[in-house]
Amino acid sequence: FSAVWGNFVNMRSLQENGDQRVESKIEEAVAPLREKIKDLEKSFTQKYPPVKFLSEKDRKRILITGGAGFVGSHLTDKLMMDGHEVTVVDNFFTGRKRNVEHWIGHENFELINHDVVEPLYIE
Predict the structure, then answer these.
(1) Rounded distance, CA 51 to CA 83, Å?
(2) In the beta sheet, which residues pair with residue 65?
(3) How many other C-beta atoms are found inside a 10 Å radius of the C-beta of residue 20?
(4) Residue 90 parent element (H or E)
(5) DSSP state of 98
(6) What three-state secondary structure class fits 85?
(7) Rounded CA separation 56/25 (Å)
(8) Rounded Cα gap, residues 89 and 68, in angstroms
């Protein structure tokens, strides 16, 4: 990025001096950055692991405390893939958000940063 930025700055100074070819050189320097931005935008479209569809009567609402830890995250994965609604509560002292981040945004998943030492009131 710094090399591209350096080229951009050099080209801007040439433009100020009246160089006609600067516009095309700027476009050449910026084109790879535009491609990288497109690639990043594609990677942000969330794709979740395959999840079974359960009817309302078969689907359970499950609360997992410590769900961002090693054991809790694997339990979360299993229950989510089975089609249940999962709420994970973790204080992230030992658990890591990256263990469950692939579920964030899924309609059956909720992540709450909370320490269970304090009362937790949820609907």
Answers:
(1) 6
(2) 89
(3) 8
(4) strand 85-90
(5) G
(6) strand
(7) 59
(8) 8
